[in-house]
Amino acid sequence: MEKKLHTFFQSGLLDKYILDETSASERLKVEHFIDTYPEVESEYKRLQDNLEIIAKASAVEAPESILDAILDDIEDNTTPVIQLVNKQRKTPWYSIAASVVALLFAGGYYLKTQQNLDLLKENQVVVEEIFDLRSDIEENNKRLDNLMHEFMKLNNPETEKYVFRGNDRAKDLKTVAYINPVDETSMIDVVSLPQLPEDQTYQLWAEMQDRMINLGILDASQRQLQSVPYVKDALALSITIQDKDRLNRTEADSAVAEIDLNNKRNN
């Protein structure tokens, strides 16, 4: 029985019954416990006494924001109001107490709801920041993996280093090519490229026995290792200055830097 009473007291039904907040089934259950168990009856009387004390000593005015919110809800309610005949009768003290406590509970509930909404917004911000941080970490990990991969390529004993140096038309040009004929990979490190007019650009070429193969544009802003197509059996690599409207054509005298691949391979 003690366990049953303990469960009943922990349920809070007696408190709800005092405040007239129980459903019909809950009300019957509470009244059954009051009639059956003296402990419940004693606690019920104690709570009634406490409500009377609260009604007399704690009748404070509710915050205006709470009253305004309640009044706004009443004004927005479009349900027709049925006028009742006002009968003069004395309001029981427990009704006053219940009204005061209910109003205080309503105010507390409103404030708690606002706090919960603010907390949810803060939590959402934190979640978004965590996702952004995870994305940054993943992106940084990818960059580190790429750098490590490039570092391993550069330190491969089969990787050969070639330095482009500009001629009189591009004296400040300096670019380094890393070529691994075993892995068949090529990379270019743009160290410096002199400024060109807007209608011109630098282009990389592979010289074959019978033709030139376009390997793409060199961008001065890309100051990092760039992968370029590997061309097997290329005799040389050259950098040319091209008009942007003639990127797929090269003239015999348009090269400003060149490296010979054939001699080094033969050595």
What can you see in these coordinates?
This protein is of the alpha+beta class. The chain folds into two domains: 1-63 and 91-155, no CATH class; 160-266. The chain is 49% helix and 20% strand. The chain is built from seven helices and eight strands, in the order ααααααββββββββα. It has a four-stranded antiparallel beta sheet with strand order 1-2-3-6, covered by helices on one side. Strands 5-4-7-8 form a four-stranded antiparallel beta sheet.
Give the secondary structure arrangement, pairings included:
Layout: H1 2-11, H2 13-18, H3 24-36, H4 38-57, H5 64-76, H6 93-154, E1 160-165, E2 174-180, E3 185-192, E4 200-207, E5 212-218, E6 225-228, E7 236-243, E8 255-260, H7 261-266
Antiparallel strand pairs: 1-2, 2-3, 3-6, 4-5, 4-7, 7-8
